[in-house]
Amino acid sequence: MDVRCTSLDEVRQRIDEIDRSLVSLLAKRGRLVTQAASFKKTTDDVRAPARVEQVIKKVREMADETGASAEVVEQVYRAMISAFIAEELNTHAKLAVKASAS
Questions:
Q1: Neighbour-count burial for 66-85, b at 16+ CB within 10 Å, e otherwise
Q2: pTM
Q3: How far apart are CA 60 and CA 66, in angstroms?
Q4: Using CB atoms within 10 A of its CB, is residue 45 exposed (0-12), middle (13-18) or buried (19+)?
């Protein structure tokens, strides 16, 4: 459902609404990434390059289906995945320290 805005202010307001939804979804995704760290044995499991490429392929297909730019979607996802991997590596390291202290 595309909405036709009648002013720049309306465009910005709608973008702000989308941003609020995106940030909420990123928070949910982040919590799942944190959980995933506990199931992975090694940092290679965290980095999971094959899984990254699987996700990229999937979201590019989704972009094509929805009329989004596959290039933009891929760039956004690669940046997001990279940030989440860094966070997950940090969580994974903390879990490893905790496990070795037990």
A1: eeeeeeebbeebeeebeebb
A2: 0.89
A3: 10
A4: middle
What is the rounded CA–CA span in Å between residue 25 and residue 55? 16
Domain ranges of the chain: 8-101
Residue pointed to by tokens 């990279």: 82
- The residue whose two tokens read 């709608």 is 14
Q: What 3-state DSSP class applies to 48? A: coil
pLDDT tens digits along 37-65: 999 999 999 999 999 999 999 999 999 99
- Nearest CA among 41, 47, 28 for reference residue 86: 47
Q: Which of 18, 29, 20 is nearest to 68 (CA)?
A: 18
How would CATH label the architecture of 8-101?
Answer: Up-down Bundle (1.20)
Averaged pLDDT, 73-94: 97
Of 25, 43, 57, 29, nearest in space to 93 by CA: 43
